[in-house]
Structure to design on (711 residues):
């Protein structure tokens, strides 16, 4: 039976979790096919449809505990031959209720959450009959873990998302995942699921992969998943099917797996976030199969991390992307948006072609490209058609859809013929104000009076582009990030004259494009490029003054950024980096410099600072010969302080200027537009936690408890 201690633990925890969306654990009985006997099936269901996934808070765990009380008694009496657990349509369960975790203030309360999950879940292993988990839909975190405590598991082929994402959020899989998974499928595969997938932007597994990894013992199609799972269960219980799992190598292979995990963590977070390392310590110690010791280690790690800043920053980041990103601050009323039934793209280069592909795929309306000659147009349209063929080849779309999408994307030399009936036209031409003003003047002469004119500028003034037009109110900034298909951010820029209807239309289009739209003021370089240019500029400054390149690069490793500053510069392109720094230098000459060394690298036609002859980045000797450095050499810590101080100052100034509504929008932009780590919560929680915000601006960016442990 459930212990009094567990019930008290969950009751106490429930008091700390106001507003929990409670999951019920409903027990029903059925006769298994083939005469295998009476079976108890527990269904996890919070009473809402799939748009509100099932989670485990304290009351939900108590409900599952009560259901296990019932089936435990039935199993002991011989009334049932087995117990199954499954979820509501499309959802198995997606883990702990993080809304409550955010509110915890004491280490002992956090410890109770870990113990509560373990105490309930491990009872599934202790029943007198075999237990079965039927992963019928999305399963994450605690949802995956409750199934790991069962004797057997099946998975639906249609499961779209299956993961242990805790490390991504700054936690460890703390309800059995770190201990049970490596003992089930081996340490190397467990490291892939727990560490590698989590640190790769929370990569999800599909149903078939869950089966291939050995997490599930059988894979069935969605249409009759439960029926097939029960038939399989019957065959297992009757001895017709024997589940044979490969022997787990607990020797050198285990050591290699943990070492691989540490290398992945070092490459992604550079020791800056503790969660991955705590998870690897538990995996390392789990090789003996001592579950009690493993579960206790999980409890301790969970409590320590909940009380650490990273978890709160990770949950803050998750909420930004899932909630704020879907309800943009300051966006006009959606009802003002006008329909968009045809899109024009000015330009047919790589960026323009990526935009044309995105608009065609998401809006499924005609998209027309123009450029200065037919050859460029043909190349742009050809690129889009080629990308559609790749989607077809990968099975992402069918032949009919491919044909339809190709038919939507065309090119035309004559802007009047191309755009006369377009509702939304975006330019992606050379980043020069005069060129863009000319393009808009030409467009205004041929489009309707309400056609939205959008610019993909990365740093220029949208207001200046529109100022000579008859209808400047329909001009809006629509700044994508490269690669367009990968980075979700779309900075939507309101120019001086932009009206609400045009802005509402821009936000409506962004939503259809499945982009995270953030409203930004028409200020130089907007948000991401302004912060990154200040960040990169300070790195460049210390190099120019005399600090070795390697020291400057290594100084910011503790931030755990997706790539080092100079590798990022290579990705962006030194010429573009130089152009943006020149734009910002003109606007803010006291804070933004133009590096002579960077200018020399661009003039020499170099694509970056590094060569990769050995497989790892090494300073290009030709670039080294170009560098003219002073004699001021800083330490890594001095470089880091200088860079972070500069970034904190710039964000403070941006907020004072009203570039975005709140610090939360800065973080949302950096996470979705620059791949800034979730475990940092973007940048402002990190600056607050390290005391930089207080030192530079005299106050933190965020109120206590927003992305930190509540006071």
């Amino acid at each position: 039976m459930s212990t009094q201690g567990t019930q008290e633990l969950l009751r106490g925890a429930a008091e700390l979790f106001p507003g929990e969306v409670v999951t019920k654990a409903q027990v029903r009985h059925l006769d298994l096919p083939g005469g295998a006997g009476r079976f108890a099936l527990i269904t996890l269901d919070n009473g809402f449809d799939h748009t509100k996934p099932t989670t485990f808070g304290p009351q939900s765990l108590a409900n599952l505990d009560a259901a296990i009380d019932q089936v435990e008694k039935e199993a002991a009496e011989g009334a049932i031959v087995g117990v199954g657990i499954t979820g509501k349509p499309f959802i198995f369960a997606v883990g702990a209720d993080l809304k409550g975790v955010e509110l915890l203030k004491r280490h002992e309360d956090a410890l109770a959450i870990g113990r509560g999950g373990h105490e309930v879940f491990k009872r599934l292993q202790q029943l007198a009959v075999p237990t079965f988990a039927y992963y019928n839909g999305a399963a994450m975190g605690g949802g995956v873990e409750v199934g790991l405590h069962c004797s057997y598991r099946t998975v639906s082929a249609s499961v779209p998302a299956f993961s242990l994402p805790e490390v991504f959020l700054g936690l460890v899989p703390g309800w059995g995942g770190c201990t049970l998974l490596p003992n089930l499928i081996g340490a190397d595969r467990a490291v892939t699921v727990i560490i590698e997938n989590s640190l790769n932007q929370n990569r999800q597994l599909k149903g078939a992969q869950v089966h291939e990894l050995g997490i599930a013992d059988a894979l069935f199609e969605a249409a009759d998943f439960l029926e097939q799972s029960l038939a399989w269960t019957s065959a297992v219980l009757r001895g017709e099917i024997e589940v044979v799992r490969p022997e787990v190598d607990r020797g050198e292979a285990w050591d290699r797996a943990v070492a691989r995990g540490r290398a992945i963590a070092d490459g992604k977070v550079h020791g800056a976030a503790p969660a991955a390392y705590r998870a690897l310590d538990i995996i390392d110690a789990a090789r003996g199969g001592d579950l009690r010791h493993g579960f206790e280690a999980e409890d301790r790690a969970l409590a320590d991390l909940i009380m650490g800043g990273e978890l709160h920053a990770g949950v803050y980041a998750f909420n930004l992307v899932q909630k704020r990103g879907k309800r943009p601050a300051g966006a006009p009323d959606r009802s003002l948006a006008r329909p968009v039934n045809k899109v024009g793209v000015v330009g047919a280069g790589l960026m323009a072609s990526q935009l044309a592909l995105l608009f065609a795929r998401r809006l499924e309306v005609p998209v027309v490209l123009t450029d200065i000659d037919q050859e460029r147009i043909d190349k742009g349209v050809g690129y889009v058609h080629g990308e559609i063929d790749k989607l077809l080849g990968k099975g992402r779309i069918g032949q009919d859809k491919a044909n339809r999408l190709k038919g939507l994307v065309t090119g035309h030399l004559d802007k009047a013929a191309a755009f006369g009936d377009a509702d939304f036209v975006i330019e992606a031409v050379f980043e020069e104000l005069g060129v863009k003003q000319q393009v808009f003047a030409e467009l205004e002469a041929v489009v309707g009076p309400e056609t939205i004119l959008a610019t993909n500028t990365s740093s220029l003034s949208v207001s200046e582009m529109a100022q000579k037009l008859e209808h400047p109110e329909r001009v809006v900034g629509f700044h994508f990030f490269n690669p367009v298909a990968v980075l979700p951010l779309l900075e939507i820029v309101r120019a001086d004259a932009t009206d609400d209807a045009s802005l509402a239309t821009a936000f409506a289009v962004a939503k259809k494009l499945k982009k995270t739209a953030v409203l930004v003021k028409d200020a130089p370089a907007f948000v991401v490029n302004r912060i990154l240019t200040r960040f990169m500029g300070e790195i460049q400054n210390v190099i120019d003054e005399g600090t070795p390149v390697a020291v400057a690069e290594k100084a910011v490793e503790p931030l755990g950024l997706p790539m080092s500053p100079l590798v990022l510069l290579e990705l962006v392109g030194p010429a573009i980096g130089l152009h943006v720094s020149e734009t910002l230098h003109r606007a803010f000459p006291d804070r933004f410099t133009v590096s002579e060394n960077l200018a020399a690298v661009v003039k020499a036609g170099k694509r970056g600072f590094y060569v990769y002859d050995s497989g790892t980045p090494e300073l290009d000797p030709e670039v080294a010969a170009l560098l003219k450095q002073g004699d001021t050499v800083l330490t890594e810590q001095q470089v880091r302080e200088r860079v972070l101080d500069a970034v904190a100052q710039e964000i403070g100034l941006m907020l004072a200027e009203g570039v975005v509504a709140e610090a939360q929008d800065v973080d949302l932009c950096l996470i979705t537009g620059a791949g800034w780590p979730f475990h940092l919560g973007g940048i402002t929680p990190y600056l607050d936690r390290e005391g930089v915000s207080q030192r530079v601006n005299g106050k933190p960016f965020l109120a206590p408890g927003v992305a930190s442990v509540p006071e």
In short: Residues 636-657 form the longest helix (22 residues). The chain has 31 helices and 19 strands. The mean pLDDT is 92.
